[in-house]
Amino acid sequence: MPQFNLIQALHLPPVAVSCLTNAGTNIFKVNTTNGFRDYPASGSIYENTNVPNSRVFDATNTTWHYNLLNPNGDGSQLYSIKLWKGSDVCWAGGRVISTLADSASTDWQAWHDLNGFRIGGMNNFRFENLYVSSFGDLINISDNSNILSDNVTITDTLFRHSHDDCIQNDKMASLKLVNSFLDGCYSGISARFSSSDATAKVINGSNDLLEVENTLIWMKPITPVYKGTDPGHGGFFKWENVDLTRGMKLSLKGVTLMARQNANHQSLGNEAGTLLATCQNVTIIWLGIGAYPGTGWPAGCVTVVTGQAGKDLWLQRVNEWYGAHPAFADLKPADTSYFQ
């Protein structure tokens, strides 16, 4: 595959117009006086199981910390923030951070059961300018009593250090991820049926599309692991690979993918297979040993960059992203952190 010309840039569009603009009386300023808490002794930072339609949660300049793990390893889920029901809802801003170190548990299942932010049964939901860090799934787009979420937009967000999926979308909601940075994923984006959903055959994602545009995704070696080398990670995309007639489609435009070691499970190739509907201007930066191990990409779909050229290009793309998102400037890590 051809090398990439470093003078080319990603040219990120400006941060999208905020849903806080002209929201009027629908704005709900989130703080500790209306149900939010920091370092909860149990439960969630915030939970609302009946969100009013058209609500705009304003979390600007607000940070919450979370410090719980499920000690039982029984698969029961913990959620830092959980929103159910509601249409045309927006979450703007805020930082949701787990303070737990990787050493807090050597049990991968305990981390898998820890979710940063879950929405369920919500239609036309929008995340913008949000930071979520150091959970299992950072964002979990789920259902509520079998009412599915749909038409979700994630724009201008920074998701960092997932112990499972940076974005979990196994219920196959139509989703658009734009101008965002998935900065250190154990598994990148998941759209694969659970065993129960596969058996029930109720969810059908064949008419749904997951679009990724102008976004960076980095696979970070993390400990503990589901299986394989520790520290390690899965693939860029964990896609439905059994019942292709019900799997959702994937579209990639202006996407940069980076990894420095091979995946423990899944792969660094085209996991979506024939469900990859669009693939344009996709750059894969491979900093591992030997040739790039990913396969299955359509001809002309991706450009692979390796070695020092790959490092230079990755830092260029990272700097471009932070330059377009000054609100996250204080979260920018040292350049060397990506290659250690």
Question: How would you characterize this protein structure?
Answer:
By secondary structure, the protein is mainly β. It has a single domain (24-338), classed as Pectate Lyase C-like, CATH 2.160.20. 9% of the residues lie in helices and 36% in strands. The protein has 3 helices and 24 strands. The protein has helices spanning 108-112, 195-200, 307-324; strands at residues 27-29, 46-48, 56-58, 63-66, 78-84, 87-92, 95-98, 114-120, 123-128, 131-133, 137-144, 147-148, 150-155, 158-168, 175-178, 181-191, 209-213, 216-219, 237-239, 249-253, 256-259, 276-280, 282-286, 302-306. The strands form 2 sheets. It has a 15-stranded mixed β-sheet that branches. Strands 1-3-6-9-13-15-17-20-22 form a 9-stranded parallel β-sheet, with no helix packed on it. β11 (137-144) and β12 form a beta hairpin. The longest helix is centred in the C-terminal third of the chain and has 18 residues, at 307-324. The chain is globular, with a radius of gyration of 19 Å.
Task: Furnish the topology, listing elements before pairings.
Blueprint: E1 27-29, E2 46-48, E3 56-58, E4 63-66, E5 78-84, E6 87-92, E7 95-98, H1 108-112, E8 114-120, E9 123-128, E10 131-133, E11 137-144, E12 147-148, E13 150-155, E14 158-168, E15 175-178, E16 181-191, H2 195-200, E17 209-213, E18 216-219, E19 237-239, E20 249-253, E21 256-259, E22 276-280, E23 282-286, E24 302-306, H3 307-324
Parallel strand pairs: 1-3, 2-5, 3-6, 4-7, 5-8, 6-9, 7-10, 8-11, 9-13, 10-14, 11-14, 13-15, 14-16, 15-17, 16-18, 16-19, 17-20, 18-21, 20-22, 21-23, 23-24
Antiparallel strand pairs: 11-12
